[in-house]
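User: Teach me something about this protein's shape.
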Amino acid sequence: MKSLTEYMTFEVKTRRSFVNITSDVSKLVTKSKVQEGLCLVNAMHITASVFINDNESGLLHDYEKWLEELAPHAPTTQYDHNKTGEDNADAHLKRQVMGREVVVAITNGRLDFGPWEEIFYGEFDGKRPKRVLVKIIGE
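Assistant: First, the predicted structure itself:
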């Protein structure tokens, strides 16, 4: 069995952002030389997410709006977590909704997606470096 472990680091300039990382992950699949297997992509921070969906700007805007309605950032005093000196309770909640990781099958040396599927890194408490783990295993 072959395996590859790589870390990607993201530091977005805004508090919240969505970054399409499909091509970066695809390059790592090629680098791994795995033809049949699995690819795990995992956010390594509790205020960031990895998810799969359509790369359509309207949908990404809808996510932003929907998540802010579910867990608004302000007022920060509405969250008990923020009483510890943090101001990112909303980011923890948004991550919980969007998820921690994705697993994608590798078939014939390529990520095996359904129509329109792409991998995104979701940042909910940005302006600092955060890591994403990519673990590829297979034959």
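Now, about its shape. The mean pLDDT is 97. Residues 31 and 59 are 31 Å apart (CA to CA). If you'd like, I can walk through any region in more detail.
User: That's plenty for now, thanks!
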